[in-house]
Every structure is written in structure tokens, then in C-alpha cells.
Amino acid sequence: MNHKNIRTRLREHINSRRRKKSNSSFARKLTGMTLCVAIAAIILSTVVCVYALRFVHNEAETESIKFGREAAQKSRVALRDSFRNNVKNTVCDRANIAGVKFYTYMEDAEYLAAYAEEILQEPGKFTRKDIVWGDGLPLGYDSMFLTLCDESIDYDEKNQAKAGILSNIEYICRSISGRHPEITALYIATEEGLLLTYDENVSSTEQGIANTKYYDFKDTGWYQLGKESPGPVFTKHYKDGFGRGDVITCVAPFHYKNGEYAGCVALDVSTEEIFSDIVSKGMNESDLAILLDNQGAVLAETGKVYTEDEQDMTIGFVNYPGLYGLKEIIRKYAESGALFSTDPETREEYLFAYSDIDYVNLRLVIQSPLSSVMGPINSIENEIDQNTGLMNQTIETTIESVLVTCFLLFFILSIISMYVAGKVSYNLSEPLKVLAGDMKKISLGNLDHRTLVNTNDEIGSLAVSFNNMAESLGKYQADLKEAISREERTATELSLATDIQAHMLPVDFEDFTKGQNFDLYATMTPAKEVAGDFYDFFRIDDDNIVLVMADVSGKGIPAALFMMISKILIKTNAFPGISPSEVFRTVNDQLCDNNKEDMFVTAWLAKIDTKTGKVTAVNAGHEYPALKGPAESFELMEDDHGLPLGAMEGSKYKEYEFCLKAGGSLFTYTDGVPESTNAEDEQFGTNRMLEALNIDPGADPGKILRAVKEKIDLFVGDSEQFDDITMLGFSYRGNSTEQDDSQDAVI
Fold it and tell me: What pTM was computed for the model?
């Protein structure tokens, strides 16, 4: 037996056992490591997930409550202001309606007085009519009847003739009574002691009015008021002496041809009907309307009209504790207003809105509880609290589900990891360690390192891919650094250009118009980082300002540079004594000089004399401006166009003049406004622009420009903005005297 062979075989067997043991130890380590990593990853993921959900839960709960409270508070403030304005507008509208009603009575009374004067001054034009005078009237009598002031009046032929002639006023009285059923009686009283009355209800029943023969009207308040007043006037409400109830009388004097006082005409209006219509008609159930006189006495409230005998009811009376102190507040403030007040007993908050009624010493007050409009806000707060509670429950349930899922995942992944690690660990050896080391070097930034692993299996393929990846990463890193460097330079340059251009345009509108008789506002919305549009305004002397609107051909940086050059040239050449056309001629020649890129700019310039409103303008191929006169709408002014600036050297420009009167406005813009395009490739156009301008043509320029921009945005929708949008508005308030008509627009 060869002992040498035996020793060799034994040594190989021992080495083989050692290798198997080593491989087995590595496999166990790899399996254990895999399990530990999997368990740690699952535990860490679970902790992070639970922490994140808990954090999101707390933040969401806090922000939800905060947002809900802020939203409710803002809604409460907005609703409170809206409620105040609505009630204030309501009381003003109702007071205006009542004032119009009283004005019609004054017109009718004035017309009756004028007709009476005509009868007295030209009695021959009228036919004498029979008039009834006696102790009573027959049942169903509906014509005018006569009452004498007292028994001292001699009802002779002269007075009979005057009464018969004056009774011609019956036709007008009948017409007025037919139009106003609330008028209980119409009558005419003369200094001679004659009282002619038209009352359709005077004998409509068997009771009638027994005492119609004598009535001392000269001592009445209404007659004295008519005698002292130069025109129609209303009395306080009082109880009528003929049994017609509480009335308010409109009295108007009339005179003889020589100007001597002849008498007065009067209309009795039922306070029950007119006051009830003012305080009750169309009122909300929760609101209370109250009618006061100038002494604070309550004349009527919703559903109730007080008679003359009930006039101890005043503001601050025990029946109106919520109105306590309102009388003093109303005296301190203007004719109309609104204020909030809290009832000290019920803590109920009310809004009091009040307004004077024209032509009469009456004031209308509306009391409206704030709770009538705050219901939706309280409901919103309750819904927020409920939703927050539901959200908390949902998140807690989600956290529990995540924990259960993580435990199940932990169990499943543990089994899978043990099986997979046991299967593959035996196939992993030194190439993986070497490759791991190589990967670590690459991950630390050494992209020039390459792995030397070269096996005929997946690890070998991975090594080849690894080397390719390292090479690609190196090339990508170099390219990325260069691209980032270029983008940073470009971004820096564009940002600088944007800032420079933004600071080139004046935005000191308030400082420029402070203390002046005009308002001005302008906006510029670029389509890209930099724009080719620009506007300008500046003062050339104490009385004259210059407005400029321009649009440079092209886009981007070249257009922005040309825009700044054009703006500077226009401003440096516009000084006192130089006409707008001369400014454009000079600027055009300067821009044409060495203009190798053939760029040009359309422009519109106006010099405005702020004292007179005279405007001298010139147009170099720009859009038509829009002009509005006082109390008129905006319309396009189709002025003469010259060539754009920079288009042809030696071009001349024709200027024109017009005058802005007090209340007039100008609007100028670039083609980005009418050429804004929506998704259907349809342009905004000048017609839509004029419609937007005329939504509120009398508003200040800032509001008008915002309205136009809102209409453009609504029309364009999500479509991309292709051109710069620049607008300038100017409104002229004028001086204390109007300008001569000879300064009207001349184009």
C-alpha cells in the first residue's frame, strides 16, 4: 500500500470537511443575517408607519379644528357684514319707496293749487257749478260740498259764484282719489272762509256727516301750515275732525294774480293705510319695522298703527327695551345707518337699520335678530366637530389594521426568508463579497473603480452590468454637472432680466395720483419670464403728464432688451414743449439706427393737461384706445395709425387731440388682450373687452382692469397664455368748472 497516497487522500478529505464546515457556517450566518434584517425592517417599518399615522392623525385633527374654526369665524364676519348691508339696503329702499309715495301726494297737491290759481286768475274760462251747502248730505252723495268757516261768513252771490267756479276742481280730485284710495278727502280752503270738500265716503252710509254747514278751519294746524309754507308740506298725523280717523295732511298754498295769499288745498291721507304699508308690507317674520316721528314717538310697527291717543309710546319705553338708547345714537349719526345692539336680558343680538323718509319728518327703523342668519354657521361648526370625531375614529381603526397587517407580514416574511436564505446561501461565496466591496467603493463616489469578478453565472452578469453602470454613472454625472451649470446660469440670467424689467415699469400709482384730479392704474402679465410689452407714465411739468403703451415685436430676451431701449428713448425725448408726434419721430429715427435685427415696436402716447383735460395723442401702429365720456360707456376710438417705431427711418406721425371731461376715462392695452385664445382657438376680441369695461364703467381704473383680467381668465380657461397682457386705465375727475364745449374730441 502506498502510504504517500493514503496521506494525500486523508489530507484532501480533511480539507473537504473543513470547506463544507466553512460553507455551512457562512450559510448559517447569511440565513441569520437575512432573518435579522427582515425582522428589523418589519419592526422599523411598523414603528415608522404607526408613528407617521399618529403624527398625521394629530396634525390632521389640529389643522382640521383650526381650519374649521377660522373658516367659521371668517364666514361669521362675512355673513354679519352681508347681513348688515342687506338690512341697511332694505330700510333705505323701503324709505325711498315711502318717500316717492309722499312725493306723489305733494305733486298732486301742487297741481291742485296751480289749478286753483288758474281758476281765480281766469274765472271766465270756467263754468259755474251748483254746490251743496247745508246741515247734512243726501245718502250716496259723491260730489264736492261746501262748508263755511263760521256764521259770520255771508254766503252772498259773490261767494256762491266763487264756490261754484272753484268746484271745477272736482274732476281733478276725483282722478286723484281714484289713483290713491288711501286719500280719505281732498279740499280747498280760501281766506274768505269757503271750504270745498271732495269725499267719496262722506255719505256712503246712512250715518253720513251731519255737521257739514260750519267748520272753523282757519284755526286748524293744517290751514296755518299751508298759509305759512311756500310750497307743498305735510302736517303731523292727527285725528280728523270729520270722523275720518287719524290722517296726515299734505297742504299746498295758492295765490291771487297779484301774489296775495288766497288759500290752500289739502289731501287727507289715512295713517292706518300708509303707515301700515310702510312697516308691514313684505316684512320677514323675524324682523320688526318701526315708524318714528322726529320726536322719537312710535307711530307704527309691524302689524300695528298707533293713533294720536297712543303717542306716549316712544323709543326707550318699557315695551321696547331692546331699542333703549337708539334715539340718541340716531341723532348723532347721519340720515341712514345700521348698528348692532345686544339685549341685556336675553343676550339676543339685534341689528338696527334706520333711514329718514324724504319730504316728511319720519324715520323708519328695522330691527332684525342676528340669529336669523347665523343658523348655517352654527350648523357648519357642528358638522366640523362631527367630522373631526369621525376622522379620529377612522385613523384609530387604520392604525389597528396596520399593526395587525405588520404582524402577519412579519410571520410570513420570516418563513419565506428562512427558506430562501437556506436555498441561495450555498451558492453565494467570495464573488459576492468582492462585488459588495466594489459596490461600496462606487457608492462612496469612486466611479472610476471596476470590479474584477468574472464568473460564468448570474453573478458574472451582474458584475458586467455593474461595470457598465459605473461607466454610465460617470458619464451621466459629468453630463449632469454641465447641464445643471448651464441651467443655473440661464435661470440666474432670466431671473435678473425679470427683476430688471419689473423695476423698469412704474407701480407707484398712489404716490403719482395722490392729491391729483385723476386716477391711474396699469398691469402687465408676461407670457414668459420676460416680456416685450411695456407701459409708462410720468410728469413732464406741473400741469402735464404722459401715458405710454407699447408692444415690441418678438418674444424673450431680445424683445425685452428692445423694450427697455424703447422705453428709455421715449421718456428721455418727452419733455415740455415737444409734441407727441415729434417725440415719436425722434425715437423712430434713433431705433432705426443700426437696427440689424429689424425689430420694431407699436406704441401709443398721450400728453394730458390735467387742468383742462386736453389730450394730445399719437399712435404708431398700436391698438385703438377705448374712451368713455361722463355717464357714458367705453367705445373704441379709431384714431390714425402711423408706422411702428423702428420700422422705417424718416417716418412721420400724425397727432390728434380730444378732451376728457369730468367723469371721462381712457383705456389702452396691447394686442394680448383681444388676441387671448381659449381651447376652441377663439379669440377674446374687442367686443368682449368692451363688455368687460362697461360692467361698471364709472369704477376706478384698478377695479376696471381687474374686471377685464377676470373676464379674460374666465374666457381662456386652462389654455396657455401665448402673448403678454398689458393694460392701462386713466380716469379724469376734472376741476371745479366744466370745460368749454369747443374742447370736444377732434380726431
Answer: 0.46
- Say how far apart CA 615 and CA 627 lie, in whole Å: 12
Q: Report the distance separating Cα 358 and Cα 364, nearest Å.
A: 11
Residue 178 C-alpha cell reads as 281714484
pLDDT at site 528: 78
Q: Residue 615 — φ and ψ, nearest 5°?
A: -120, 125
Q: Phi and psi of 376, rounded to 5°?
A: -60, -35
- Rounded to an integer, what distance in angstroms lies between the CA atom of residue 192 and that of residue 217? 11
Mean pLDDT throughout 25-51?
70
What was the pLDDT predicted at 3? 47
d(CA 431, CA 456): 11
Residue 174 is placed in which grid cell? 276725483
Q: Terminal CA-to-CA distance of the chain, rounded, Å?
A: 132
Cα torsion 464, 468, 471, 474 to 10°: value is -120
**Helix/strand/coil for 118:** helix
Give me the mean pLDDT over the 75-84 stretch: 82
Mean pLDDT of all residues in 619-625:
96
User: Closest Cα to residue 522, out of 550, 500, 496?
Assistant: 550
Among 107, 226, 122, smallest CA distance to 168 is for 122
The CA-CA-CA angle for residues 675, 681, 686, to 5°, reads: 30
User: What angle do helix axes 371-424 and 3-121 make, rounded to 10 degrees?
Assistant: 170
Query: Taking the CB of residue 317, how many other CB atoms lie within 10 A of it?
Result: 14
Which residues lie across from 607 on neighbouring strands?
546, 616
Contact residues for 141 (Cβ-Cβ < 8 A; gap 6+) = 132, 202, 203
List the 544-552 sheet strands across, edge first: 533-539, 544-552, 601-609, 614-620, 655-659
pLDDT on residue 446: 73
Cβ atoms 373, 98 nearer than 8 A: no
Say if CB 68 and CB 388 are below 8 A apart: yes
Classified as helix, coil or strand, 741 is helix
Please check whether residue 676 is in contact with residue 683, taking contact to mean a CB–CB distance below 8 angstroms. Answer: yes
What is the band of 472 on the pLDDT scale with cuts at 50, 70, 90?
A: confident
Give the type of residue at 310: E
Q: Which residue in the block uniquely carries the three cell numbers 303731523?
A: 236
Structure confidence at residue 315 as a pLDDT band (50, 70, 90) = low
Determine what percent of the chain is predicted with pLDDT higher than 90: 36
> Smallest Cα–Cα separation from 534: which of 525, 542, 521, 543?
525
The tens digit of pLDDT for each residue in 174-216 reads: 899 889 989 989 999 999 999 999 887 765 444 445 557 888 8
Look at residue 544 and give its three-state secondary structure.
strand
Average pLDDT of the chain is: 81
Fill in the amino acid letter for 173: C
Query: Which amino acid, one-letter code, is at 454?
Result: N
Output the nine-digit C-alpha cell for 37. Answer: 434584517
Question: How many Cα atoms within 13 Å fall on the side-chain side of residue 700?
Answer: 11
Residue 609: exposure state from Cβ atoms within 10 A (0-12, 13-18, ≥19): middle
From the list 199, 190, 279, 177, the residue with the least C-alpha distance to 227 is 190
User: Can you list the positions of beta strands (E) in 302-348?
Assistant: 304-305, 336-342
Question: Predicted confidence band at 738 (pLDDT cuts at 50, 70, 90)?
Answer: very low
pLDDT of 717 over the 70 cut: yes
Instruction: Place 320 in a pLDDT band, splitting at 50, 70 and 90.
Output: low
